[in-house]
Protein: Heptaprenyl diphosphate synthase
Amino acid sequence: MHTRRMVLIALLTAVAGVLHAVEGWLPLPVAVPGAKLGLANIVSLVVLELFGWRAALLVGLLRVLLGTLLGGALLGPAFAMALSGAVVSTVVMAAALPRLCPPFSLVGISVMGAAVHNIAQMLIAAIVVASPGLLWYLPYLLLFAVPTGLMTGLTARHFLAKLPREFAVRKP
Structure:
């Protein structure tokens, strides 16, 4: 791995980890308890686009470790839920990006990632508390995934459009 690439990925990982932790501290005035904006997923989308799926998966894993460590939830149920959401959404977005873009843009891929992120997290929550009844909550989270996925995707697209060309170092 080239030094420049490694430094950029490390910086983006740090940003994602801090966003992950800070987002847990933000109160959201929404009718869906537990819903989050997915701010760290902006970084995941940027890394996926710039550096490919391997780097995006690495950043996702490290941001969950860093974010839950900073948030005081390392290795607890919140860690398992965040890890499952990050891994599954990154894999799905990485698989969908070359196949569905076009007709979908990075924004559509982001909405897809937000939805599967919620599905993975709810499945882990249902397993952790041994209650499949928690899955009734999933449709509400999926409704929230659409606007947050749109916001995340639009922000990532805007960020990528403003980057200088030398940052376009995408590798699989």
Summary: Helices lie at 3-25, 39-51, 53-71, 77-100, 106-128, 138-162. The CA atoms of residues 51 and 170 lie 4 Å apart. The chain has a mean pLDDT of 85.
